[in-house]
Amino acid sequence: MITSQRTFNPIQLHLLEMFNHCNTDGMMNELKDVLSDFYARKVQAEADRMWNEGSLDGEAIERILNEHWRTPYTEA
Questions:
Q1: Is the pTM of the predicted complex or chain greater than 0.85?
Q2: Is residue 30 part of a domain?
């Protein structure tokens, strides 16, 4: 059997330790919400930056909204 060794970076290790202290589903959900808010702010900041530099505009947003994101499945 082939096994692979995975090394976690310091951020991953810290997050694992944080989740280790979640004793209830409520605590876990609260921590997940905090992480989701963190990434939402990062995405918003990047979108604002792109808008201000002109690489993102209303037309680009419309293209994104109309993009088909589902994985194409083919029958075997």
A1: no
A2: yes
> In whole angstroms, what is the distance from residue 2 CA to residue 55 CA?
46
Report CA-CA distances (Å) from 26 to 30, 37, 40, 74: 6, 16, 21, 40
33 inside domain: yes
Between CA 14 and CA 35 the distance in angstroms is 13
Angle at 33 between CA 8 and CA 11, to 5 degrees: 20
**pLDDT tens-place string over residues 32-61:** 899 999 999 999 999 999 999 999 999 999
**Distance of alpha carbon 37 from alpha carbon 68, whole angstroms:** 26
Residue 61: domain span: 23-65
